[in-house]
Amino acid sequence: MAKIMIVEDEAVIRQLIGEELTKWRLDVYQTTDFNKVFEEFEEIAPQLVLLDINLPVYDGYYWCQKIREVSKVPIIFISSRNTNMDQIMAMNMGADDYITKPFQVDILVAKINALLRRSYNYAESGEELEHNGITLNIDNSSMTIKDEVVDLSKNEYRLLFILMKQHGKILSRDKLLRALWDDERFVDDNTLTVNINRLRRKIEQAGIEDYIQTKVGQGYIVP
Fold first, then answer.
1. In whole angstroms, how far apart are CA 69 and each of 73, 119, 138, 142?
2. I want to staple 114 with a disulfide (CB 3.0 to 4.6 A). Which of 22, 52, 130, 182 is the partner?
3. pTM for the complete prediction?
4. Residue 197, exposed/middle/buried by CB under 10 A (0-12, 13-18, 19+)?
């Protein structure tokens, strides 16, 4: 039974989410002490975190950053803040998804179940994938460039795997969204852009330029 940690200060929303997730046989932990979010995270070791932005004491960005210092656990932001900048900040902090209030609970549940499946059942044969100076280490979700090992988030890893596996082919944004998030209707298109840019930056910082190329109006390609 997957353990879900809900960090939401609005009691009605927190309880509504908790009740619905319990129906899906998920083990729910609802945080109420917002001074000790990180301590509780370490204690319960959840498989997924639902995290609001506007919280007492410290905001969700702070707690996301703290969690990312020690864990790659899936994090979904749930927030009434709906600007592109909020979503970009969340993804740059290491969030895996972002859903805006008000939302339909069944859509949130679909996102949670899809993310759990991808995060804990995603397996491919073989231990390494190599192309044009990058070795993708499948066993630990990292890449090696010029003897430097670079850690990747789950979404960065999946993007690079798909692009390397089908190098030489242009992959449309819709295809990448479907591959990453099961149903692209539930994902802001900006989420893909943020993850592509973050992955490109890591590759460039490790010494390879223009590894992922944009084909305007078509998608992305690893030549």
1. 11, 18, 21, 16
2. 182
3. 0.62
4. middle
